Amino acid sequence: MATYVLNGPNLGRLGTRQPDVYGVTSYADLVDLCEQTGEQLGLAVTVRQTDAEHELLGWLHQAADEAAPVVLNPAAWSHYSYAVRDACAMLRAPLLEVHISNIHARESFRHHSVVSAVATGVICGLGVDGYRLALRYVADRLAVGDD
Ligand code: DQA
Predict the structure, then answer these.
(1) Ligand 1: centre distance to CA 117 (Å)
(2) Residue 30: in which H helix or E strand, if any?
(3) Per-residue pLDDT averaged across 49-66, rounded?
(4) Is the Cβ–Cβ distance between 61 and 84 less than 8 Å?
(5) Which residue lies with its CA nearest to atom 2 of ligand 1?
(6) Are residues 100 and 128 in contact, defined by beta-carbon separation less than 8 angstroms?
(7) How many angstroms separate the alpha carbon of residue 32 from the centre of ligand 1?
């Protein structure tokens, strides 16, 4: 079974996008990090990024059909997309919401995520390490047969 790492809008520009906020790790480096972490943990990790909401919805539907775990950084959609939240609510395996920055220490419109209430857990503010920690959680859950 696949474990999906799904990334929303503007995350493809990591490395050059506001490095003071998001760090200097490029999106390509993030893909490598997730794939290598998956290999170490025995997870078949598929990493994707899109700037098109309908594409993310399709990937979430696929994960729901496959009962596959998802690590999701919904990026700006976190804060207002009920469509992304509704798609997340259909998932049948753990959903880990990840934010690179600490959204609670930033502008007030970022303090609320409409996705968090349907996520298994949320990691924010730990930089790209948040993805590694989320994958570790998924591997531990699969190992104990929770999902
Ligand atoms: C983000 C935080 C969001 O507020 C922002 O819109 C992003 C990235 C993060 O990873 O810190 O695009 O999800």
Answers:
(1) 17
(2) helix 27-41
(3) 98
(4) no
(5) 75
(6) yes
(7) 20
Instruction: Name the strand (E) or helix (H) holding 73.
Output: strand 70-73
pTM of the model: 0.97
Token pair, residue 117, equals 């209430």
For residue 143 the two structure tokens come to: 């190992």
Alpha helix ranges (H) inside 47-103: 53-66, 82-89
Percent of the chain with pLDDT over 70: 99
pLDDT for 143 equals: 87
Residue for token pair 């799904």: 6
Ligand 1 pocket by Cβ (under 6 Å): 10, 73, 75-76, 78, 99-101, 103, 110
Tell me the residue type at 69. Answer: P
